[in-house]
Each structure stands twice: as C-alpha cells, then as structure tokens.
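Bug #77: duplicate submission created two jobs. Keeping one. Sequence:
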Amino acid sequence: MTTASTTVSTPLRPISKDGLEALAAKAQANPNVIGTLKVKTVCEGQFRNLNFVRDLPEHVIDEPPTLLGQDTAPNPSEALLACLGSCLSVGIHANAIMRGITLSKLELHLEGDINITGVWGIGDLSNKRLGISAVRVKVDIESDATPEEIAELLEHANYWSPVANTFRNPVDMEVSLA
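Kept job's structure:
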C-alpha cells in the first residue's frame, strides 16, 4: 500500500533537472553502452565482510547473532533489500523532478521473505526455493502531485529500476577462482 499526501512542507534536496536531462541525452545518444560495476569483498573474520566500491570507505556486511554473526551491519539479504529501496527511491525522485513534482517526503519500507533453513548449503538440503521469494515495498510519499500522478510515478520507477529488474529477470552469473 502506498501512502500519499499532497502536503509539501520542505522539499527534498533537489536534483539538477539540467543534469538529469544531460544524462538522459547521453544515454539516448549511446543506447547500447554496458557499464561494469566492480566491488571487492574481503572477509575480515567470522561472517563480517568489508566491501570496497570505487574509492569510498568500506561498506560492512555481517550477520545477526541468530546466524552466528557479530551483528555489526546488515546481512547480505538485508543489504540487497536496501539496494532495492535505494534504487527505487532514486528513480522516484529523478522522475518526480522531470515531471515537475515536488517531494517533501520519500520513505520506502521493504520486507522480503526468505527460507534460511538451508544455512548456506550446510543445513536442511531438501528441495526448496533459495533466496528471497517475495518482496513487499510500501512507499510513504508527500508531494504536490495527485494520487493518480503518484501511482503512475511509482509504476514507472518500478518498471525502470535496474535493481528491481535484477530481482525480476534471470541474470547470467559465474563464480570462479581468481
């Protein structure tokens, strides 16, 4: 369920509409460009992992105590949901700017169902679906748009979200020794 309000108090920090238009024009001029994202993951010990992206400080992934972790950071599945929420938020905000919609609040609440009894292949190994099997996203948004405009904005952002489409579509994946 989406909560939408037409009250706009203080607008969210804006995105440059000119910058968005330039980015869109660049993509339209070269529609077949494929980028490659790179991350280095280093196991620090137990289940705590340091992830290095570009020149940013490390991003920590850990497990909760119920999964024998130190509980110092989100676990991989929680981080995946956080990535989905962030990607949807970026798309909603960018498309709101392009449509002249002012947002004063944008919060996404995500839930994902996951069967963890396989415990990384060492627990119950009976036939079951692995990974997150269902995701629910609830968007709490305040803007100057009509409920119909907000519904269309959310549908559009969901359709074009790279992370949402990674959830929906099969991905070629290879794991090998370095």
